[in-house]
Automatic annotation (TrEMBL):
<feature type="transmembrane region" description="Helical">
    <location>
        <begin position="20"/>
        <end position="42"/>
    </location>
</feature>
<dbReference type="InterPro" id="IPR029052">
    <property type="entry name" value="Metallo-depent_PP-like"/>
</dbReference>
<keyword id="KW-0472">Membrane</keyword>
<dbReference type="InterPro" id="IPR004843">
    <property type="entry name" value="Calcineurin-like_PHP"/>
</dbReference>
<dbReference type="Pfam" id="PF00149">
    <property type="entry name" value="Metallophos"/>
</dbReference>
<dbReference type="GO" id="GO:0046872">
    <property type="term" value="F:metal ion binding"/>
</dbReference>
<feature type="transmembrane region" description="Helical">
    <location>
        <begin position="63"/>
        <end position="81"/>
    </location>
</feature>
<feature type="transmembrane region" description="Helical">
    <location>
        <begin position="101"/>
        <end position="122"/>
    </location>
</feature>
<keyword id="KW-1133">Transmembrane helix</keyword>
<dbReference type="InterPro" id="IPR051158">
    <property type="entry name" value="Metallophosphoesterase_sf"/>
</dbReference>
<protein>
    <submittedName>
        <fullName>Metallophosphoesterase</fullName>
    </submittedName>
</protein>
<dbReference type="GO" id="GO:0016020">
    <property type="term" value="C:membrane"/>
</dbReference>
<dbReference type="GO" id="GO:0008758">
    <property type="term" value="F:UDP-2,3-diacylglucosamine hydrolase activity"/>
</dbReference>
<keyword id="KW-0378">Hydrolase</keyword>
<feature type="domain" description="Calcineurin-like phosphoesterase">
    <location>
        <begin position="145"/>
        <end position="311"/>
    </location>
</feature>
<dbReference type="GO" id="GO:0009245">
    <property type="term" value="P:lipid A biosynthetic process"/>
</dbReference>
<keyword id="KW-0479">Metal-binding</keyword>
Length: 374
């Protein structure tokens, strides 16, 4: 991971910085600053013992993400410039130098893109409305509203005031039910106790339910499950609850994360989660990772809500993220008769806090009746 993070920096130093007509006394400090910024994850590990938890002041985390983003974008732009110069050289049949002015303009564009990407990542997201047709939805649940939060990654980057702002916006959305589909935090309970405290103020008429994401397993999973329950959040760990209106039912189920077994915990078990549910009642499933959606569709789930992918974050990167998640990365998908919705996430991991054309979201779903399944 650290070597991968260094590659864009090496491209920038060798292909962008070194050819500039600057004195060596300036190039060397600039190169060292870039190398330092590229090792953000290493500094994060020194700060907390884990690459997943940068325990720096928030402005420094923002600066690190901006610097890494600027290096990444500049590396990509420099590759484009180098390819353009190569094509021009082949056409002219002599060496073509890239002017300093063009290199500096590329650096300015990269810095601006990085600033936009960081600003887009750390803002309090708006509420996004999505209407979903549920086959056989009972009339009593027509227009039922679910609110999804996911991938909060509460941390030094997403601290108490950000969490409180998200809670205020979620409560104001007027949903019947609030769901959190994992990755609440980055850090231990001791580290995040104050930052996560506003979640106790989440409220909806039919309650607040949640599942763990993979990041909960990176720390003390059992302690986190206990702490989240203490905040008034009902954790559905391979379990379901039945919502009842006018003697008709809607089933809400949740499974643990695919990473659970690697950490000595109980892995996802959809059969156990659905065992004993009312027959013919539509099922809404919370599953942090979307990659096994076909299994849920095969077991008759009507709607699956997932996160984990952060929507891909950047153009191009989204394709790589999709490949690791069976093609599911952002938005609505039809998987057989089931609707899968993959949220872009409410927050994201502070180790890579960049978003372009992939806004964060608080998602409000309105359920509408559709033809009953045969």
């Amino acid at each position: 991971m650290l070597l991968t993070a260094s590659l864009p920096c090496l491209i920038v130093i060798l292909n962008w910085l070194w050819p500039l007509s600057l004195p060596l006394a300036l190039k060397i400090p600039l190169a060292l600053l870039m190398l330092g910024a590229s090792q953000y994850l290493y500094w994060s590990k020194l700060s907390s013992g884990s690459v997943f938890v940068p325990e720096f002041p928030r402005p420094l985390i923002i600066l690190f993400n901006w610097a890494f983003g600027a290096i990444l974008f500049l590396a990509l732009l420099q590759i484009v410039l180098d390819l353009g110069a190569l094509v021009d050289a082949l056409m002219r049949w002599h060496f073509v130098a890239i002017p300093d002015s063009v290199r500096l303009a590329a650096a300015g564009i990269a810095g601006m893109l990085a600033a936009i990407a960081v600003a887009g990542a750390i803002r309090v997201p708006p509420v996004r409305d999505v209407t979903v047709t549920i086959p056989g939805l009972p009339p009593a649940f027509e227009g039922y509203r679910l609110l999804q939060l996911t991938d909060l990654h509460i941390s030094r980057l997403f601290p108490t005031r950000w969490t409180q702002a998200v809670v205020d916006r979620a409560n104001a959305a007027g949903a019947d039910l609030i769901l959190v589909t994992g990755d609440f935090i980055d850090g231990s309970v001791a580290m995040r106790r104050a930052d996560i405290a506003p979640l106790k103020n989440l409220h909806a008429p039919d309650g607040v339910f949640a599942i763990p994401g993979n990041h909960e397993y990176f720390f003390d999973y059992s302690e986190w499950m206990q702490h989240l329950s203490g905040l008034g959040i009902t954790m559905l760990l391979n379990a379901h609850t039945v919502l009842t209106r006018n003697s008709t039912h809607l089933v809400l189920a949740g499974v643990t994360d695919l990473s659970a077994r690697a950490h000595g915990q109980t892995g996802p078990d959809l059969e156990a989660a659905l065992a004993g549910r009312p027959t013919n009642a539509p099922v809404v499933l919370m599953d942090h990772q979307p990659r096994t959606a076909q299994n849920a569709a095969d077991q008759g789930v009507a709607l699956q809500l997932s996160g984990h992918t952060h929507g891909g974050m950047l153009p191009g990167l989204a394709r790589m993220v999709a490949r690791g998640n069976n093609g599911f990365v952002s938005g609505r998908y039809s998987v057989g008769a089931m609707t899968l919705y993959v949220s872009n996430g409410t927050g994201l991991w502070p180790g890579f806090a960049l978003r372009l054309f992939c806004p964060p979201e608080i998602t409000r779903f309105c359920l509408r009746a559709g033809p009953a399944q045969s």
